Amino acid sequence: MSLLALRNLTKTFGGLVAVNNVTFDVAEGSIVGLIGPNGAGKTTVFNLITGNYKPDSGDIFFDGRTIKGLPTHRIVQQGIARTFQTIRLFQNMSVIENVLAGCHCRMQSGMLSAMLRTPAQRAEEQRALLRATRELEFVGLADEHANLAKNLSYGNQRLLEIARALATDPRFIILDEPAGGMNDQETAALIYTIRAIRDRGITVLLIEHDMSLVMKVCEKLVVLEYGALLAEGVPAAIKDDPRVIEAYLGVDTDD
Ligand SMILES: Nc1ncnc2c1ncn2[C@@H]1O[C@H](COP(=O)(O)OP(=O)(O)OP(=O)(O)O)[C@@H](O)[C@H]1O
Ligand SMILES: [Mg+2]
């Protein structure tokens, strides 16, 4: 059964068709990679799923129900979390505060009880702190909790974004180039972390240019080119697909 289903999704910017009639599924509990050359429309697909953009046509189903047109915060409440291709952290806030910002997306207390600091609100804050600490431990950043986000290495900032996304308690996480800017050692650790996320029962969709990472970690790859779906299948088949090789290398495989 698929947790996420995209159906004939199209998004244009002026005359440019950034996403062109794209249909694919992400099975619950799987790790799926969305790949393709620069400008292929990958991030735009993510922005459509998360409600940052509205599709021109087509539909998006999450757990069998349409989420098309919902505002971003409602989509987070449904259990979809994301990280960004261009890191978006509160750079001058501490590492733990950045993760708490994720927890707060899901908290019940209203503004009034927060101002009055009711016992229920204090208990909720305690739970959030515990959760944020656990997520930092999960991504290996517990020792950095008091550090400012801006002082973390690029790779650790990416892990912090993952921790913040996990703190929203998602069923589904989408990662936009999580290995971007990471060295080989950090990338190897990231592979472990992505698998551990899935082992927690969270379904993963990721965009990544690092082919060795997607080949190792993904059960299925979806390839976009010029906004359209070029190929879809298991990594071993995609790697040898002449259309995919041509899209990446620009060589004419028909010769
Ligand atoms: N907000 C926007 N306004 C206008 N054009 C946009 C907008 N967002 C994306 N585009 C265009 O849509 C196309 C697809 O962009 P997108 O960012 O989805 O590609 P991508 O596959 O994520 O590429 P990359 O691998 O470089 O991140 C590009 O031509 C891009 O310039
Ligand atoms: Mg992109």
Automatic annotation (TrEMBL):
Keywords: ATP-binding, Nucleotide-binding, Transport. The keyword ATP-binding applies. Pfam families: ABC_tran, BCA_ABC_TP_C. Residues 4-251 form the ABC transporter domain. Signal peptide: none annotated. InterPro entries: AAA+_ATPase, ABC_AA/LPS_Transport, ABC_transporter-like_ATP-bd, ABC_transporter-like_CS, BCA_ABC_TP_C, P-loop_NTPase. GO terms for molecular function: ATP binding. This is ABC transporter ATP-binding protein. It comes from Nitratidesulfovibrio liaohensis. The lineage of its organism: Bacteria, Pseudomonadati, Thermodesulfobacteriota, Desulfovibrionia, Desulfovibrionales.
